[in-house]
Amino acid sequence: MQLRGVTMSLRAVAQELAIADKTVDRAIAYSHAVEEMPELKGKAVTWVIHEHQRRIDREERGKKLVGMPIPQNLIHGDALEELKKLPNESIDCIITDPPWGVGYSPHALEEVRNDNMSIFDYMPKITQEFYRILKKDADCYTFCGYGESFCSFYHAFINAHFMHSNTLIWIKDSRVKGLDFSHRYAHFYEPIIYMKKGNRFLNNSFSKDVLNFAKVEGGYASTEKPIELLSYLINNSTVKGEIVLDCFCGSGSTLVAAQQNERRWIGIDIEQKWIDISKQRIMELRKNEV
Question: What is the spatial distance between Cα 162 and Cα 133, in angstroms, rounded to a whole number?
Fold first, then answer.
C-alpha cells in the first residue's frame, strides 16, 4: 500500500514537471529491480530492468518444475507422425538438425536418409507442428545448409508464424575432408536458424551470434554436433527440468547435452541404428552419473 502511494506521488510530481510517463515507468521499474536485487545497483538502467525481468522469468518457470520427475523419451519413427502425437504447448525448446536436401553421403558406410529435395516439401509440415507443440514463449534452433536449404527452411518457419530472431553462425574450425574446394571457398561454418515463438528471454544477457566450437572428430557420425555447442544453446534457452526436443536426433548428441544439464528430453529418429546408438550413449552417461 505504501509503495502504491509512493508511485502515485511520483506520477503526480512527474505530471507537474511535464515528465513523460515512459520515463517515470523506467524509474519505478529500476527502483523495484534494485530493491529486490541490490547487486544490480549501479549498472545501466535498461540492462538492470531487463535483467530483473529475466531473473523473475527464470524463477517462475523453475518453480513450476519443482518436484517433477525427469523422464526421457527415445522414439523410433517418422518425425512428422511422432510430432503429431505430442500435446499442444508441451515443449520448452527445440534443437534439431534435419536433412539438408543436398544428398550428403560422406562415405559408403554412412548415408543421411531422405537427404534429397523432398525435405523442402516436408519441412513446412514439420514447422507447423513445431509451432503447435512449443509453449507460448519458447525457442527453436535448426541447423541447416546453405543456399536452397537455408531459404526453404527459413520460409517454412516464417509461414508457420515463427519470428526470426537471429541466424547463428557455428564456426567449425575444421577442414572438410575429401572434397574439392579449388573452385569455391571451403565451408568452415554452419548456419543455425534461431526462431522464436513468443518472447522467451535468453539466460545470458549478452550472447554473440558467432559461436566457436570445434567440430567433432572421430564421433558417431560425420554430421555430429559438439556437446559443448548444444549445451550452450540449451543453457541459454531453458532452465533445469524443462523439455528439449530433437526430432532428427541422429546419434543423440542433443539428448546427451540435455541429460548432462538436467533437462528433460524427447528424441525422435526414423533410423533404428541411431536410436540404438542414442540409447547406448545415454546409458553410458547414466552409469557415469551414479
Answer: 13
Rounded Cα–Cα distance for residues 174 and 223 (Å) = 12
Burial of 281 (0-12, 13-18, 19+ CB in 10 A): middle
Q: Domain segments of the chain: what residues?
A: 2-63, 72-289
Give me the CATH topology for the region 72-289. Answer: Rossmann fold (3.40.50)
Q: Which three cell numbers stand for residue 11?
A: 506520477
Give every CB contact of residue 281 below 8 A, 6+ residues apart in sequence: 220, 251, 252, 255, 256
Q: pLDDT at position 4, please?
A: 47
Decide the pairing of beta strands 72-76 and 264-269.
parallel
**Range scoring the smallest mean pLDDT among 41-55, 136-150, 187-201:** 41-55
Partners of 191 in the β-ladder? 169
Asked if 144 and 193 count as a contact pair (C-beta separation under 8 A), the reply is yes
The model's pTM: 0.80
Q: Provide the Cα torsion 83, 84, 88, 94; round to 10°.
A: 20
Q: Report which of 219, 213, 210, 247 is spatially closest to residue 98, judged by C-alpha positions.
A: 247
Find where cell 573452385 sits.
183
How far apart, in whole angstroms, are the C-alpha atoms of residue 260 and residue 282? 10
**DSSP-derived pairing of the beta strands 91-96 and 243-246:** parallel
For residue 130, what is the enclosing H or E element?
A: helix 119-133
Residue 20 has which C-alpha cell? 513523460
Handedness of CA 72, 76, 80, 81 (dihedral sign): negative
Q: What digits encode the pLDDT tens for the residues 244-283?
A: 999 999 999 999 999 999 999 999 999 999 999 999 999 9
- Residue 170: helix, strand or coil by DSSP? strand
Strands 91-96, 134-143: pairing is parallel
Q: Is 235 exposed, middle or buried (0-12, 13-18, 19+ CB in 10 A)?
A: middle
Kindly give, in sequence order, each residue whose CB lies less than 8 Å from that of residue 7, ignoring residues fewer than 6 positions away.
28
